[in-house]
Design brief:
alpha+beta; six-stranded mixed β-sheet; five-stranded mixed β-sheet; 10 helices
Length: about 500
Amino acid sequence: MVLGIAELLAGLIDPDASPFVATGATVVDHTPAALREFAIDQFGTRDKPVLFLCMAVVMAILAVVAGLLERRGPYGSLLLAALGLVVCVVVLLRPNATPVSALPILLGIAAGVCTLRLLIARAPGRAPRAEPITGTAADPSRRRFLALAAGAAAVAAGSAVAGRWVGERMRAVAADLEQFVLPRPRVPAAAVPPGTDPPVRGLTTFVTPNDTFYRIDTALRVPAVTSADWRLRIHGMVEREIVLSMDDLRRRPAVEKVVTLTCVSNEVGGDLIGNARWIGYPLAELLAAAGVRPDADMVLSTSADGFTAGTPVAALTDGRDALLAVGMNGRPLPVEHGYPARMVVPGLYGYVSATKWVVDLEVTRFDMAEAYWTQRGWSARGPIKTASRIDVPAAFGDLAPGPTVVAGVAWAQQRGIAAVEVQVDDGPWQPAVLAPEYSLDTWRQWTWRWDAPPGTHTLRVRATDGRGSTQTDQRASPAPDGATGWHSRSVTVG
């Protein structure tokens, strides 16, 4: 009842005050790094539905506990009130909260406590009231049924109203996206050289389709921002503050670049990496329009939902293809990938650079501000480490003896890949054949021909970047600055 009424009022007053979403977001915010990485490793992009399911189970258990306590006195009501006040504080601490945001949960607490006391007062075994009771309207079972029906109706109404608002917003964004016209890039991306995509079944394609591109972020509900509503504010340690609309951007020349993005949560051999064609506007030019002061060294970017990332000013102004992107693989950005605008910065993990639904760029310093993940113990600058992965053959696969193709991808954005080597069991490292290099900012496919003998074997891969550094064999978890180690796969030949 508490959440039902609160969700109902949030849908009417301020959907961002949804206690369910606010609580879930706070859980994400305060989850220890090890537990967060475990959840991503186990559930991947399904981590958010799993979180909501766990929250629903916990809330159901607390509701049962409150009912049992209330039979012994007002303890259940006190529990509901205490939990409700905690959620109220959680809602008020969200980035976009206002004092009005507390109203839905406060009224939900009152409704929940009243309903609980009414149900307990009418429960079997309670002493009857002194006044005479006549007619079926006073029947305890009927009253309990009506109270329960009212509670269920409140929950349904709350979900319906909140869902309707969110649905209407998302339909508006979907319609806006369908009408969005991508700018024609002043500088189209270079053509992909022949042979960049070796014809090996099971090998990751050079360009990742939009619908399979990884998505890892803190948004439990995708922000709904139309291109007409969108604004980008650039302020802080600048000569002049500027605010850009989408129309302002369209008056600027756009460019198209192919860039590989990597999530810092990517485990060794993981798939939280993708390569796409991005259309957008050079961030260096946008920052130059505001005039970055020479003592600034960080840009704190903020998403429409309050998420922040801290990016070195140098990474946005040193000539690399750092973009405010509005297009992905020839289409407007998908909503879940940041529509209408997001950041794309080669060479840095996404948690310090790839802000989606970006609406604010504050030019500042690392010693003056901290971003979302750096506040939680992650590295402040997040340069991508050299890594490689085996895609083919599949893990624990059964192979026929004889010639076999081993293949995969390697990446070291901003440095490029100079060599990839494969090892079988504890034998010598063998050089793989590299596909043509597209750029230093994209991953590189590789293949190796193996005359597979019968038996069980372990394949390992390692890469050397364009600066001559070979990836380490020392295993490290993603926290605080990216995973390390050689990827391996076991196969059976026979």
